[in-house]
Fold this protein.
Amino acid sequence: MLTPPRTVVRREGGIYALERALQRRGFRIVAGADEAGRGACAGPLVAAAAILPEGKRGEIDELTDSKLLTPAARERVYAEVVKRALAYAVVIIPAAEVDARGLHVCNLAAMRRALATLTTRPEYVLTDGFGVDGLGVPGLAVWKGDQVAACVAAASVLAKVTRDRIMVDLHERFPQYGFDEHKGYVTPEHSAALSAHGPCAEHRFSYVNVATVSGRDSRPPRSRRPAVVGVLDPIEQAIPAGVPSAWRWPRARLPLSVGEDVAMEGGV
């Protein structure tokens, strides 16, 4: 029995090389998934999945890891991804759900949900950093995937722009924290605001810095509502003026609780 030839990923192919190599091996529909907000101590965790078309139609100028782009460049790339993608989906997990279920469990569950929500079924999945099981198709966790795989980079831009819009909206409700500037990440300015005002309902009380200033030992306030995972409809993604305060959940296509997936994380 002959062994199939090894798949060669050519460095000169750039960010599209890995997908092109998979497509040469017969995996024509390759999806990428990534998240934004993992390291933030306030605001939601946002995961996204995207499938770009083959060939020149899927090539987007400036596409790379969203963290390496300026805000203006991210908005340009976001618009191109929305316009060109064969399918894409975004999942929003509020801070309360992160506190209740744990960051890593929520991270993998959100990427799984985003991939499962795609209207086009992928034949292969690339994820940034962490492998996601239970997809029913082969996949690969790629180190720094948002810098080496175009579909993962596209997902990272979708997740980052969506989350940034949400944080700007939260700034209108909680201007004392400066969410529009640091987007909920730990900065000297954010830490000073936490010390001065204490945390709000959008902070993650399971994070040590928030728990310390709250005096609640990682217990969120009782007034915080039960968490829901919002899965945005792709039609609702292209919002030039930003995401409204309701985050489109009343019109969400598939609101789900992360806790419903008892098999996620392999039983962890």
